[in-house]
Amino acid sequence: MAEKAFILIETVVGRNKEVVTALKQLEGVKSIDTVTGPYDVIATIEGETFNDIGDLVTAKIHPIDGISRTVTCLAVDR
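and the corresponding structure tokens:
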């Protein structure tokens, strides 16, 4: 069974659509929701292991232009 995480993403003002477009192109991103509140986007991601999730976040998501901050919430009870 694949591991799952929720990535809470804060974007730079005016860059939300660009961030969502970039996230949609990444393998492992299962859903993307634009939300209100302290974060702008919540992405649900999956990987074979928690290490795979960490690699996806640090190597593919963090470098996306327009992301100012992320919080990763691992799903542990499934």
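(Above: one complete record from the training split.) The helical segments are 16-24, 50-61.
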